[in-house]
Amino acid sequence: xxxxxxxxxxxxxxxxxxxxxxxxxxxxxxxxxxxxxxxxxxxxxxxxxxxxxxxxxxxxxxxxxxxxxxxxxxxxxxxxxxxxxxxxxxxxxxxxxxxxxxxxxxxxxxxxxxxxxxxxxxxxxxxxxxxxxxxxxxxxxxxxxxxxxxxxxxxxxxxxxxxxxxxxxxxxxxxxxxxxxxxx
Length: 184
What we know:
alpha+beta, Aminopeptidase, seven-stranded mixed β-sheet, 6 helices, 7 strands, GNAT_dom, N-acetyltransferase, Acyl_CoA_acyltransferase, acyltransferase activity, transferring groups other than amino-acyl groups
C-alpha cells in the first residue's frame, strides 16, 4: 500500500534488524505488550507475529510497524458463523526518530481504509494503557471512539496495575467521515 509519503507492506524475516533498531528502545517498548530481552528473544517474538505485522517505510527506511489482527466478533452459537473474521485489532509502534511528523496518523488511516474497504471488516479496535497518552491521542486523531476505561485492569511491568482503555471504529462511522482522511 502507498500513502502520500509512506509505503506499508507485510513484514518479512529480513526486517528483523530494522525493527530491532527501535523496538529495543525503552521509549518504544515501555507501553508495548512485550519487551525483547535480547536479540534472540526479539527474533522469536517477530517470528510468532509475522502473520499480523505490517512495516511502515519512508523512502525505503523502516520507521514503524502496525499490527492488524483479524478476529471473530463475539456471537451466540446460532449465529457464530456470521461473526467470523469481521473485526480487527490494531496496534502500532513508531521509531522515535520519525515521531512528530504525522507518519503514524497517516499509516493508521491507511490501515483503517484497508480494514474497511479491502477486507470488508465491520469493526476495528485498539487497546492501550490509559497513561500511554501518545497512543490515546493517535486513536482519537484517526476517529476512533473511546469505548472502555477500565480501572486497574492492566498489569504494567514497571507501574503495576494501571487503567486500560479501549477504542473502536465501526465501518459505517468510518464511511460517514469519522475516520477523517485529512492529514494532521
